[in-house]
Amino acid sequence: MGWFDRHSQALQAFGAMLTAAFALIAIIGVKVQLDAAERVARETQARDLYRGFLALSLARPEFAEPGLCPAFEGNEATAYDYYMEYALYTAEQVIDMDPSWSGAFEGFFAPHQAWLCSAVPTAYSDPVGALISRFGGTECQALQEECSARIDG
């Protein structure tokens, strides 16, 4: 018992350090769990958004493949605008979760170049703005001229 009495202060200090170390490990563990739960929630949300977008595309195939110069009028034109905004929002959410999806969305947006020519890339996140910019520039002017000639001709 004498040994414990002589070393009680050192043992108390060691116990306090051990308690602090376990508390720090527990805090780090909670942080790791919270980060993992947030990542899973974001992945689930992105998948749900994409699934909803695919369902909308199946329900409105004329919007999914509008042709080179879409000629929607009235309510259809408004619906197509909202469809494209939803597509960009979905791309933004999914690419934010996993940048490797950029290629898939680039392929999706290719038939929508006429609409994308009027989109403002800075209104979106950098990856989606870059996707929009790929369809811009001089190609937009040539496409607009071609579409105008189709409408007039």
Succession of helices and strands? HHHHHHHH
Number of helices: 8
The span between the termini is: 105 Å
* Mean of all residue-level pLDDT scores: 86
Which structural class do you get from the secondary structure elements? mainly alpha
Q: Which regions are unreliable across 5 or more consecutive residues at pLDDT < 50?
A: none
Strand portion: under 5%
What is the global morphology?
A: rod-shaped
Determine Rg (CA atoms, Å): 28 Å
Helix content: over 70%
Number of strands: 0
Fold and architecture overview:
By secondary structure, the protein is mostly helical. Helix content is 78%, strand content 0%. The protein contains eight helices and no strands. It has helices at 2-6, 8-59, 61-64, 75-97, 102-109, 113-116, 126-133, 138-152. α2 packs antiparallel against α4 and α5 (102-109) packs parallel to α7 (126-133). The mean pLDDT is 86.
What's the topology here?
Elements (H helix, E strand, L loop, with lengths): L1 H5 L1 H52 L1 H4 L10 H23 L4 H8 L3 H4 L9 H8 L4 H15 L1
Features:
78% helix, 153 residues, rod-shaped, mainly alpha, 0% strand
Brief synopsis:
By secondary structure, the protein is mostly helical. It has eight helices and no strands.
